[in-house]
Known about the structure:
The chain is built from six helices and eight strands, in the order βαβαβαβββαβαβα.
Amino acid sequence: MMEMNLLHGDCLELMKDIPDRSIDLIITDPPYGTNLTPQRKNSKFKGTKVLNDDTLDWLPDLVSEYKRILKENSVGYVFCNWQKYDLFKQAFEKEFIIKNCLVWNKDWIGMGNNWRPNHEFILVITNGKFKTKSNNKSNIITQRRVSPQKLTHPCEKPVPLIEELIIESSDEGDVILDSFLGTGSTAIACINTNRNFIGIELDDKYFEIAKERIEECRKALQ
């Protein structure tokens, strides 16, 4: 039976209890270090700050923990943006092989002027040999972002995007970690693809939303 382990607290502390070399795949969307505060006037998240998004001081410790718990010849996908990509790459290449940088084409331009944002980066980190299941994938992935009306988190990623990464990089029954759970998109993708899951979230509000979304997903599949 698929296991779903949801942990509430600081991921840098809680990951210490995860055994060495026990994680098959990491998919996570950490704070980008850009001090994000949504400003769109009609947004449900206007003025809502993302926790720990004002610094990347925690990044070296995260890299060390990922190195310890990820199995040999496995992969991790770490979301980041163009403003801080260089800092994420420099931090992770101290411990991992940087296999690639995927571009998530959101298929729907964001707010702003001039060159309005329509993409984010996904850093592909490995600690050995790795290739996708199809062995023939583009490093540009087009999945439409979650519409503003349906967002449960200001930085929410679409479940189909996460599912594509999971299917290409793991097997059914594998253990997948998301140390920045948010409102649970990676967890739902794991349910849909029959993977075991460990998720960690610090924010009280989003942790509760994640639990509700996960429970609704499980009921829908019964």
